[in-house]
Amino acid sequence: MMKLSLLISVVILLLSVFPAQQDKYYRERQLMVKTQLESRGIVHKPTLKAMRSVKRHLLVPRDQEKNAYEDRPLPIGYGQTISQPYMVGYMTEVIRPKKGMKVLEIGTGSGYQAAVLGEIVDEVYTIEIIEQLAKTSRSRLGDMGYTNIHVKEGDGYFGWEEHAPFDAIVVTAASAFIPPPLIEQLKEGGKMVIPVGAPFTTQQLMLVEKQKGGKRTTRNLLPVRFVPFTRN
Ligand code: SAH
Question: How crowded is residue 48: how many other Cβ atoms within 10 Å of its Cβ?
Answer without folding.
Answer: 18
